[in-house]
Amino acid sequence: MIGVFDSGFGGLVVLREFLQLLPQYDYLYLGDNARIPYGTRSDRVVLRFTEQALNYLFRQGCRLIILACHTASAKALRTIQQVYLPAHHPDNRVLGVLIPTVEEALARSRARRIGVIATEGTVSSQSFELELKKLDPEVEVFQQACPLLVPLIEEGEQEWEGTDMILRRYLEPLKAARVDTLILGCTHYSILQDKIRAIMGDGHTLICSGQVTAKKLVDYLRRHPDMENLLSRRGGRRYLTTDLTPRFQQLASLFMGQPIDSELVEL
Ligand code: DGL
Fold first, then answer.
1. Is the CB of 37 under 6 A from ligand 1?
2. Average pLDDT over residues 60-67
3. What pLDDT shows up at residue 218?
4. Is the full-model pTM beyond 0.90?
5. Residue 62 catalytic?
6. Cα distance between residue 72 and residue 8, in whole Å
7. Per-residue model confidence (pLDDT) at position 33
C-alpha cells in the first residue's frame, strides 16, 4: 500500500495525479486536519507531527509514503530519511514533493530565473533554494511567502476579488524579477493556478507538484522493483483524517474533484 500524507486536504491534489497514472495500487491518504497549518510551525513541531503520521501509516501497512505536504517535505524529510527511517523502518521508504518539483523547474527554465511561492515555513527553510542551487549553482531563485493563500482557500474564497488583489501583491515582485518558471510550492496553490497564470502572463511556466511528483513516482517504481513488488495492487483507496468538521466534505471535494468518505483517526 502507498501512503500519502499532508497536513490537511491539500495533498488530495497530489493523490489525484497518482490515481491517474498509477491506479492499480492501494492508497491510504492521511490528512492531519486537526493540526493544519504546518506552514507557520517550527521545524521541531513539523518533524514531530510528520513522524507521528508516518508511524500511523506504517502501522496500517504502508511500505512507501509520499509526503504530499511541501512544508513537511522542506522541513522534515531529510531527518526522516537520514535518522528516523534507518532507526525505525529501514525497509520502508518516504519520498517528498520538493525534489521532483525542483528537477522539473530546472528542466523547464531557459532564463535560469526561478520563482517559488510557498508557505512561510517552506520559504524560511530555504529548502527550495538550496536544492535548486545544488543542482545548478548558476540559477537565480526568488522566493515569496504567501501566508494568506492557505486560509483563503480553506475559507472557500478563491473566487473573491480580494484574493485576486492579494495574489497580485504576492506575484508582483516575482514578475519584476523576470522569473520564467514559477514553482507552486504548496499543495493548495494549484487550486489558484488559472488566476496565477493570468497574473503572471504569457511566457511563464508553472510547476505544479502533483503532476510532477506522479510522473517521478512512475519512474521511481520502475527503478526500484524491490519496493514495487511490496505494494499491494487491488485499486483500494481509504481516506483518513484527524478531524472531521462539517466543512470537510466540501473542501475534500474541492481538492479531490469528487466527494470522498473519510474515517476519523487519532495519531
Ligand atoms: N500542506 C501545506 C504545504 O504544502 C500547506 C498547508 C499548511 O500550511 O499546512 O506546504
1. yes
2. 98
3. 97
4. yes
5. no
6. 12
7. 93
